[in-house]
Design brief:
alpha/beta; five-stranded mixed β-sheet; 13 strands; globular; binds oxa(dethia)-CoA
């Protein structure tokens, strides 16, 4: 039986910070509301392209695994905020890192893109079709935000993470996974005014906006993630007590608390970084996993439980058995170009563009 061990990991968080206090300078919100309802204190704003973040995260993962990019035979990139419609972003990253032997596929399942990618990569390695796969998850969501919408804009941020999966005969890696989609909730999270469903003749075209039913998503997310977690544990004949650390999608501290309570996971075993980055969509799990490793919270032989949900509504869970190595073989010095602007300064033209449009209509 072939398995797919995680041998490399890495992250890229852009340097520009946007705090809750920054948000309160241009919208009717407060640190008190955002902190108490979500746990988020600040988020990052990207000053370059999404593929630049993905490239840096991938370079860290390659160094951690001690692999040359030419050894990678597949890149799966989970994101909804691609550099362009065409070419796909995975192929831009392939070129940037020099992975000339890799096929390159983008996966858009919103926040679940990383776990969907892990599930697919694992399955392809098990069939023997691929041996070394780079799975990336991340988002440049600030670019697609309507910054006049306080109910949505305060929740999200930009970041990217990546892992390397390598074929092994040892029983390691993603031992069980379950992904799914609730078919009656496509409009619960929706980015509008982009894409073929929207008239190019409309004045709103290319001014992304959001349909967002926060409370509905909250309830469904907790239920779907809990049952997916129970299912993957059952697949392996394990109980929640066997799990050493949970690395869930970071959307809201209250969602993390509700999920942990529902499945009986002690809160000190839950990896949390939502206060630093907000919801980075497909980036949350690989970034949190990388930080869990950096903080020595993953030990050799640990069972790591992942759970996720996002627009669609898509959902999933995965159970990973970690190998012996919990530190990178090498450290990459890859980083984004320096950024001289604050988060607010990067966003200023974007906010102004929406203001001007609102004033004109
Ligand atoms: O990865 C998938 C992405 N989706 C999610 O993460 C969504 C999950 N849902 C949630 O996290 C929560 O439902 C939210 C954080 C979005 C909202 O929390 P809530 O406790 O469900 O608040 P609410 O929607 O019931 O809003 C309560 C009040 C409303 O005012 P009224 O109608 O009671 O007067 C809102 O207008 O809070 C108001 N409000 C705000 N006030 C200050 C909404 N956004 C803000 C804001 N600042 N940013």
């Amino acid at each position: 039986m072939q398995y797919a061990q995680i041998t490399g990991w890495g992250k890229c968080v852009p340097p520009a910070v946007l705090s809750n206090a920054d948000l309160a300078t241009f919208m009717d919100t407060s640190d008190e509301w955002i902190s108490s309802r979500t746990g988020i204190k600040e988020r990052r704003i990207c000053h370059v392209n999404f593929s630049d973040m993905a490239t840096v995260a991938a370079q860290h993962a390659l160094a951690a695994a001690n692999l040359d990019a030419s050894e990678i035979d597949l890149i799966l990139l989970g994101s909804l905020t691609m550099d362009s419609l065409c070419p796909n972003t995975a192929s831009i990253v392939q070129n940037a890192i020099g992975a000339h032997n890799a096929a390159s596929i983008d996966i858009n399942s919103a926040c679940t893109g990383f776990l969907y990618g892990l599930h697919i990569a694992n399955s392809l390695i098990q069939t023997g079709a691929h041996k070394k796969v780079l799975v990336i998850g991340g988002e440049f969501i600030s670019h697609y935000m309507n910054w006049a919408r306080r109910d949505v804009a305060v929740l999200f941020g930009d970041a990217c993470g990546a892992v390397i999966l390598e074929a092994t005969n040892e029983k390691l890696g993603l031992l069980a996974s379950r992904i799914g989609c609730e078919m009656d909730t496509t409009s619960a999270i929706q980015i509008t005014n982009l894409g073929s469903a929207y008239s190019r003749l409309s004045d709103d075209f290319l001014y992304p906006d959001w349909n967002f039913e926060g409370q509905e998503v909250f309830k469904r997310a907790v239920k779907a993630m809990a049952s997916a977690c129970e299912e993957v544990l059952q697949q392996e004949g394990l109980s929640i007590d066997d799990v050493n650390i949970m690395v869930p999608h970071q959307a809201n501290q209250r969602i993390l608390d509700a999920l942990a309570k529902r499945i009986g996971m002690p809160s000190d075993k839950v990896m949390v970084n939502v206060h630093k980055y907000g919801n980075t969509s497909a980036g949350t799990i690989p970034v949190a996993l990388t930080e869990a490793l950096e903080q020595s919270r993953v030990k050799p032989g640990d069972y790591v439980l992942m759970a996720t949900f996002g627009a669609g509504l898509t959902w999933g869970a995965g159970l990973v058995k970690w190998g012996d190595r919990v530190s990178p073989v090498h450290q990459s010095d890859a980083e984004l170009p320096p950024c001289k602007q604050t988060g607010l300064e990067i966003l200023a033209p974007h906010i102004e563009r929406y203001r001007a449009k609102a004033a004109a209509s």
